[in-house]
Structure formats: structure tokens, C-alpha cells
Amino acid sequence: MSRKIAVIGMGHVGSTAAHYIVANGFADDLVLIDPNEGKVNADALDFKDAMPNLPFHTNITVNDYSALKDADVIISALGNIKLQDNPNDDRFAELPFTSKQVKDVASQIKASGFDGIIVAITNPVDVITSIYQAVTGLPKKHVIGTGTLLDSARMKRAVADRLHIDSRSVAGYNLGEHGNSQFTAWSTVRVLGQPISKIADERGLDLDEIDHEAKRGGFTVFHGKKYTSYGVATAAVRLANIVLNDALTELPVSNYREEYGVYLSYPAVVGRDGIVEQVQLDLTEDELKKLQVSADYIKTKFAESQAD
């Protein structure tokens, strides 16, 4: 069965995701969409020039929304990263721009007859994921945001750095909004066969400092190069592959939680049918409070985006 992925928005993140897909042969067909004709055609040609030196072949289509009809996954990477260069380091600075763009793109996705899975990276990702679902009318379980899949990776990297182990040996989640109200749910984090609280006591780890580092990680990268790309593109492509392979993997992604009435990051099992099962964590009282704060914030911002 042919595997078809589309990437909408060929800026730093979209082109990084597309390159990762092409270089690893993750798709048979790749659709690239961007209003900047020169840039998207240049990327397509660049990828084709790479193929003689790759073990894989990928068929590439440019700026054809009708080609989305039979796509398995659409990765939304559109945005305007320059808007994030603000003193508050606020991902919501992009919302007036991206909400307008996304409503237009989502209506064209709907018109194409697309009935696969949408993976949204576009910031602020939880609100944008909600907009995609509302405009396309796709089932909620078929519209997913990368959410705190990246923040959880940043937390794992920060813990692993201190313990001198591989970051994949750390298990656990950051939850809530992919933004300033997200937090590490330390009750879910295990490392070296123990709850992290036990290891932290034994080895003098400052969990508040690690949580802050995970939350600030994106801005540290952003201030160094004025965009982020590798971490989030890798998270999005991993999600796309999990869908394509029906891998049924538990991940902290932005998915619609009925009890909060909003899209936010909370672990779910992801497969070919999108969100296949929602996980129920046994969170502490404090963590539940933080999650509610995050949910309320996302809800307020989604309402603002609808009023525009």
C-alpha cells in the first residue's frame, strides 16, 4: 500500500520534516504546499537532486490541494516564526496570523476530500489543532497536535544529561499546553527503575530547575538561531510514521479530552485511526490543578480565535 504524506508550510520546520521523510524513505508520495512558489519549488528540486545519492525514491507533488484527497497524513507546519521574537516569549503571539491562515488552509483540505490524519505543529498548537478540527469537520481523534511530545523530550534530555544516561531511558510526561502553562508531571517520570523523586533525593537533582529547563528549551534554541526546527520536525514525523505503521504507541500529544472540553497534551495511544485510546494518569492534586489552569488558558485563547 502506497504511503502518502503532505507537508503544508515549507519554512524551517516544514522543510526539515520533509527532508527527514525523503532522506529516510518514509513516504512513497510527498505533497509540499506553500504560498511561496519559489521556495517550495526550490525545495522540491533540491530533494530530487538528493535522490540519486539516496537509497529511496519519493514522488513529489507541489502546491496541489487536490493531491491531498488520498493522503494518509497531513503535517501542518505553517506559521510566522518572526512573531515569536517578543519579550514575553509567548507562542500565542503567532495566533492572529496563524489562525487566519489555518482557517483558509483547513477549508481547502476539507474541499479536497481528505479523510486521513492531521498532525499539527503550527503554534499555538493546541488552539490551532482545535481550529483544524472545527473547520475540516474531521473526527476529533483524527486531528492531533505534536503538543508536549517535544516538551517531554526536552525534559528527558535534561534529566538524562544530569544522570549521564541516554534520554530514551527516561520515561514520563510533560502535560497541558505546549506553551508557558505546560509542566512536567513528575509523578509519571521514572528513571533507572525508580520514580524520579527517589533518584532526585539520592542524587541531589533539582526537579524545579529541570522543569524550567524543559519549558525554556525551545526559547533557548530560538534565541540562538531565531527558529527551532529539528526537535519539533522529528516529533511530527515520528507521529506521522506511527499513524502510517499503525504502531499503537502511547505518546503525550495534543488530543481532545472530553473532561476538559479542549485539546491539550495528555498521553494517548496513537495508530492508523488517530487517537485509538486515551490514557488515564493517576496525577497528584497539584498536577491536576496545573492541568486545569492549562486547559482554561487554551479554552480562552480558542474562544478569542473564533471571535476574529
Walk me through the topology.
Blueprint: E1 4-8, H1 12-24, E2 29-33, H2 37-50, E3 59-62, E4 73-76, H3 95-112, E5 117-120, H4 125-136, E6 143-145, H5 149-163, E7 170-175, E8 183-191, E9 194-195, H6 196-203, H7 207-225, H8 230-244, E10 249-257, E11 262-271, E12 274-278, H9 285-307
Parallel strand pairs: 1-2, 1-4, 2-3, 4-5, 5-6
Antiparallel strand pairs: 7-8, 8-9, 10-11, 11-12
Describe the structure.
β5 (117-120), α4 (125-136) and β6 form a beta-alpha-beta unit. The protein starts with a strand and ends with a helix. The model has no long low-confidence stretch (mean pLDDT 94). It is an alpha/beta fold and 308 residues long. 44% of the residues lie in helices and 21% in strands. α3 packs parallel to α4. The protein has a six-stranded parallel β-sheet, with helices on both faces. A three-stranded antiparallel β-sheet has the order 7-8-9, with helices on both faces.
